[in-house]
């Protein structure tokens, strides 16, 4: 309960809002969880949870444009959250849904990011920023060997079926698929290095 609240509060601080919550525990089924790929990128993970937290804010109506430009929260994503994220069918997306979502994710998937501080939120926002480039895993606006190394690390972790618990690994998943084949692996790391070499020559 506390963990999801901290995430939702962090989203609230991001948008300078004061959230209010209903109370009642919710549990979700594997089918419900699978329907939570709100941004339709092939993964159900912390990014979808953050989108849900933002939509749950009481003043979300007034911050749609900002959410769209800063984290890429589109009308399609919002509609999917309202349709698939109301786990208890009470007509609202609130803290209970966020808690159920987070608990399921941490206990049943390889993504173990279970708490987000405000500094993490800055990283998440960078990761979700629609203007950020593919291949720039650490979000410093430079594509170089550090990014390639993060992609290799992600590949090494996930290829053994192990879990990951850092925002950087989440970023590798979402910004590392250079050839768009929905797999993040050594081929993508090589493509990042190639891009780095091209950029260096161009300068
Ligand atoms: Ca997703
Ligand atoms: Ca970088
Ligand atoms: Ca790939």
Secondary-structure content class: mainly alpha
Distance between the termini: 50 Å
Low-confidence stretches: 17-23
Approximately how much beta-strand content do the residues carry?
under 5%
Tell me the number of structural domains: 2
What would you report as the Rg, rounded to the nearest angstrom?
17 Å
Number of strands: 0
Ligands present: calcium ion
Which percent range fits the helix content? 55-70%
Q: Based on the structure, what is the oligomeric state of the protein chains?
A: single chain
Shape: globular
Can you give me a brief rundown of this structure?
Helix content is 57%, strand content 0%.
Which keywords apply here?
mainly alpha, 57% helix, Type 1 dockerin domain, 10 helices, 203 residues, binds calcium ion, 2 domains
Write a structural description:
The chain is an all-alpha fold and 203 residues long. It contains ten helices and no strands. α8 (145-159) packs antiparallel against α10. It is globular, with a radius of gyration of 17 Å. Residues 136-138, 140, 142-144, 146-147 line the site of one calcium ion.
Secondary structure elements and pairings:
Layout lengths: L1 H13 L15 H5 L11 H10 L4 H12 L3 H10 L10 H14 L9 H11 L16 H15 L7 H9 L10 H17 L1
Bound molecules: calcium ion (CA) (3 copies).
């Amino acid at each position: 309960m506390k963990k999801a609240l901290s995430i939702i509060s962090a989203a609230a601080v991001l948008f300078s809002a004061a959230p209010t919550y209903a109370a009642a525990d919710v549990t979700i089924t594997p089918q419900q969880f699978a329907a939570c790929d709100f941004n339709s990128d092939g993964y159900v993970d912390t990014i979808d949870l953050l989108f849900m937290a933002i939509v749950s804010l009481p003043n979300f109506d007034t911050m749609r444009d900002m959410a769209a430009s800063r984290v890429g929260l589109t009308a399609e994503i919002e509609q999917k959250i309202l349709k698939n994220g109301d786990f208890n069918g009470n007509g609202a997306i609130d803290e209970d849904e966020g808690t159920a979502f987070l608990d399921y994710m941490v206990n049943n998937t390889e993504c173990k990011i279970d708490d987000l501080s405000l500094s993490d939120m800055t990283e998440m926002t960078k990761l979700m920023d629609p203007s950020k480039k593919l291949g720039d895993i650490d979000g410093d606006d430079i594509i170089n060997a550090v990014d390639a190394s993060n992609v290799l690390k992600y590949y090494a972790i996930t290829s053994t079926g192990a879990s990951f618990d850092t925002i950087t690994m989440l970023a590798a998943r979402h910004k590392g698929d250079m050839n768009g084949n929905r797999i993040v692996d050594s081929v993508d790391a090589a493509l990042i290095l190639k891009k780095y070499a091209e950029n260096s020559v161009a300068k």
